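Mods, move this if it's the wrong board.
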Amino acid sequence: MSRITFINGKYVPHGESLIHIEDRGHQFSDGVYEVIHFKGTQFVDESLHLERLQKSLKELSISLPLSLEALKIHMHRLVQVNRVEEGYIYMQISRGIAARDHAFPKKAQPSLTMMVRRCSFAPFQGIKVITTKDQRWGRCDVKSVSLLPNVLAKQEAITRGAYEAWLVDEKGFVTEGCSTNAWIVAGDILLTAPESTGILKGITRERLKNLASSLGFTVQERSFTVEQAYLSTEAFLSSTNAPLLPIVQINDRTIGTGKPGKVSLALRNAYEEFVKEELHQYV
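Not the wrong board. Structure tokens:
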């Protein structure tokens, strides 16, 4: 069966998913996106993801092109028609089609596209990350489709044999990864960057904070440097499709024992148990 994509109210074959050349998402990156993992017909932390989507839209003064309830209906239907058991749904909302001009158009209908892709959570295994200069725009809290600096940093990581790149600001603090949030374990404290316009408030990050507290760990939103990361007993990253991946090497430095640690394992297990329980309540 061929893949099906949703474009502005229509379900079309993936290969025929065309957008207008003057769509502002295409010409100006004038839009936002969201990614939600699902199993069966249920989405993980669906409400939190949709709240973030609405926040991003509000920050850019873009309207949701349909009601929230209608959006949910189309999300679930798209998963069903694609017959995918586990994967993620990617949705993108742009300001719409308008004559090319930097200023917001007076009249434009926001454009909504969605696609489904098959994938499972990344396996729990130790990974390497590198550090590189954070060259992104100043509103990283908005989940904008302006991702070229992230793409370049990710490619640098791949070229250097790493899974991810941690981005470092002008003060020497780690902000986050290209598509992940960054964590270290210092003694008995879990550290992750504080909420600001310099990071995206990850949904999985928020879930892990709550789970860590329930397990008795202390979580602090506090900036940390690369040097502090080198000295940490554990480090890990988190994202929608990689809920927690332990980091065993940063640049050329081994972290902790060079193997996934107890905190990382306990948190990953707790997250997987949370997903099972959340999805079970809808069965």
